[in-house]
């Protein structure tokens, strides 16, 4: 399988939020070309300039549609409530691309975080239902934004469960995770199994609150 990321541009839609910004930082530090997308180009350009200066990497910013067009691999790291609308809008731009859905459909109340019911089963499955001409993979759901954004943290010690139905695409996204020191991409099953991986983020948030930590996932014996 060709998992060479050389010459590929990684677009991060929603790249001005903590998770997207953190992932963009790590990929830029790893030497990848990164385009940050946001609703407004100006905000994306500002964050991109800050990250380019901080990492010495190739980071640019653009409106989400332009970032999506520029990316060979496109990460979706937007809030759940804008997920369906954005992907529907960008469907023509994302045709033929690998789209990595990183969105966790979560709710919060007095008892803390909980997984939301999604009609299609998960955010990843919703993305696949909308983006019928793209190859959709689920990944990067359980990685702490706090650690990703902290320049003092050199190694992100966690596994990234990668979910998808097309082996070439999941291999490539595993390789993308592997570019970050300490991080490892692990195949986690087909798209239909994305729900529990997305939902597990609620458990991690609860753990982090209880233990004042930034918990991630490690898979044993693989």
Q: From N to C, what is the helix and strand string? A: EHEHEHEHEEEHEHEHEH
Indicate the radius of gyration in whole angstroms: 16 Å
Structural class: alpha/beta
Beta-strand share of residues: 15-25%
In the CATH hierarchy, the third-tier topology is known as Rossmann fold
Count of individual helical segments = 8
CATH classification class: Alpha Beta
Query: Which strands sit side by side, in order, in the main sheet?
Result: 3-2-1-4-5-8
Domain Pyrroline-5-carboxylate reductase catalytic N-terminal: 9-105
GO molecular function, one term: oxidoreductase activity, acting on NAD(P)H
Protein name: NADPH-dependent F420 reductase
Keywords: Oxidoreductase
Task: Provide an overview of this structure.
By secondary structure, the protein is α/β, with parallel strands linked by helices. The protein is 38% helix and 22% strand. The strands form three sheets. The protein has a six-stranded parallel sheet. Strands 6-7 form a two-stranded antiparallel sheet. A two-stranded parallel ribbon has the order 9-10. Strand 9 (158-163), helix 7 and strand 10 (183-189) form a beta-alpha-beta unit. The longest helix is centred in the last third of the chain and has 18 residues, at 194-211. InterPro entries: NAD(P)-bd_dom_sf (IPR036291), NpdG (IPR010185), P5C_Rdtase_cat_N (IPR028939), STEAP_metalloreductase (IPR051267). Keywords: Oxidoreductase.
In a few lines, what is going on in this structure?
By secondary structure, the protein is an alpha/beta fold. It has helices at residues 18-29, 41-55, 64-70, 83-90, 123-130, 145-149, 167-178, 194-211; strands at 9-13, 33-38, 59-63, 73-76, 98-101, 106-109, 112-115, 135-138, 158-163, 183-189. The protein starts with 8 loop residues before the first strand and ends in an 11-residue tail after the last helix.
């Amino acid at each position: 399988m060709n998992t060479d990321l050389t010459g590929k541009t990684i677009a991060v839609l929603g790249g001005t939020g903590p998770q997207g910004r953190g992932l963009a930082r790590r990929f830029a530090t790893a030497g990848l070309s990164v385009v940050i997308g946001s609703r407004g180009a100006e905000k994306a350009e500002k964050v991109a300039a800050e990250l380019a200066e901080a990492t010495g990497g190739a980071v640019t910013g653009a409106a989400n549609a332009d970032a999506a067009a520029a990316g060979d691999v496109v990460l979706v790291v937007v809030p759940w409530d804008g997920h369906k609308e954005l992907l529907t809008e960008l469907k023509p731009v994302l045709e033929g691309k690998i789209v990595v859905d990183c969105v966790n459909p979560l709710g919060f109340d007095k008892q803390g975080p909980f997984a939301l019911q999604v009609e299609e089963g998960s955010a990843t499955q919703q993305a696949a239902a909308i983006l019928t001409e793209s190859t959709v993979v689920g990944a990067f759901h359980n990685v702490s934004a706090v650690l990703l954004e902290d320049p003092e943290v050199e190694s992100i010690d966690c596994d990234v469960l990668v979910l998808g139905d097309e082996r070439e695409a999941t291999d490539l996204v595993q390789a993308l995770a592997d570019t970050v020191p300490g991080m490892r991409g692990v195949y986690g099953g087909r798209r239909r199994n994305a729900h529990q991986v997305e939902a597990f983020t609620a458990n991690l948030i609860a753990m982090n609150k209880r233990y004042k930590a930034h918990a991630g996932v490690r898979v044993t014996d693989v």
